[in-house]
Structures are given as structure tokens and as C-alpha cells.
Amino acid sequence: VIDGRYIACKNLFRLNEGDIMRWCGVLKNWIAFAFFGVMTALPSQATTVRYDLSLVVGNTWQYDFSVANDSLATAIDEFTIYFDRALFSNLQLVSAPADWDPLAIQPDLGLPQDGYFDWLAMSSGIAPGRSAGSFQVRVDFGGNSTPGASLFEVVDPTTFDTLDRGFTTPTVTAVPEPSSMVLLTSGLLLAMLRGRSRSVRKGKGKGKVKAPV
User: Does the model's pTM come out above 0.70?
Assistant: First the structure.
């Protein structure tokens, strides 16, 4: 299929192999540059909170959170994960590590206030460079698809200052299928080749003098 598309593009735009290879090189550099720009624009966080998500029954979902202290200057002794009051209800604690004290606060549309889970370390917390897992909760989700990321905050339990905040991320991030990437790349390449073909036709039309009638 790829060979057929290659030959079709070559015949359609009357391009030689060198032209096509140059355009492929330009496209590859453009994609790499765009990816680098997006990644460098993302804000860095000192804490990473990841989750595994599974459907329990009906609209009830279970989150299994793990927390990593990537670069905070102090241990993580308390953290909170929020759930949008418009989408979530019936927040339930499932399990937590033995040395953590969990708390569940239900969302309240009247206040209004988002629901949240809060975990307080009863001993040393999560030291810099270390991680902890098995923070399991269940929620009822009122949306039309699969629930996703939530806001989290790392809190100093003594001063109540927020030390870090961000959004939870899934343990396994969806990657586009190869067929989707091929279609995307082919579409971008075709658009670039069409632009080149138009400019070539316009260039050939310049300088022509209409014969007198």
C-alpha cells in the first residue's frame, strides 16, 4: 500500500525520487521540531501522581493512585486529589498504605464545592526521590465517556501551604496506532506536495505571451 501511494504521488506531481526524499526530510524535521516545542512548553512538576483506572460496575470507577516525590525539597506528608462536583459523586475510600490516614469529602453543589480525597502521613511521608502506591478510591462518574485526570495538591500539614500542584496522569498513556500516524504523515506530505505543484504550474505560466489573433 505504501509503495502504491509513493508511486501515485510520484506520477501525479511528476517528482523524482530526490524531490520526494527532500520533502520527507523536511516533514520529519517539522514533526520533530513541533514535538520538541510542545514537550518543552509543558510545565515541570516536582510531584507525579499516576493512576490506573478500572470500571467496577455501572458508572462506578476505581482509581489506584501512586505518588512520586520527584524533586520536592521536603517529604510529601499530605496530598489532596479533587473531583469535579459536576461530574463525580459518591466518593469512597477503598484502601491506603498502613501509615497513611485517608479522608473523603463529598462534592456539594449547594456550596458549591468539589469533592476530594486527602491522605495524611502518620510517619515519615514520601521522601525526595521515593514513591508510594496503593491509594485506592472509587467514584461515581456522571459523564458520557471514561473519567480522566484530576487536580492534585501537595500540602504542608503544619502551615497548610500548597507545596506543589498539577494534574494526575494515567499510568499507560494512549499512543496513536501506526495506521493513524501513516495517514497523518501522508496527509501532511500530500498537502505540501500540492502546494509545490501549484507553485510549479504558476512558474511555468509566467513569461508566456499570448499570440495575436
Answer: no
Distance CA 88, CA 105 (A): 12
3-state secondary structure the chain: CHHHHHHHHHHHHCCCHHHHHHHHHHHHHHHHHHHHHHHHHCCCCCEEEEEEEEEEECCEEEEEEEEEECCCCCCECEEEEEECCCCEEEEEEEECCCCEEEEEECCECCCCECEEEEEEECCCCECCCCEEEEEEEEEEECCCCCCCCCEEEEECCCCCCEEEEEECEECCCCCCCHHHHHHHHHHHHHHHHHHHHHHHHHHHHCCCCCCCC
Chain center to CA of 136: 22
The dihedral built from the CA positions of residue 116, 136, 70 and 84, taken in this order, carries a sign that is: negative
* pLDDT band (50, 70, 90) for residue 45: confident
Write out pLDDT tens, residues 140-199.
999 999 999 999 999 999 999 999 999 999 997 544 444 444 445 545 554 554 555 444
How far is 127 from 150, CA to CA, in rounded Å?
23
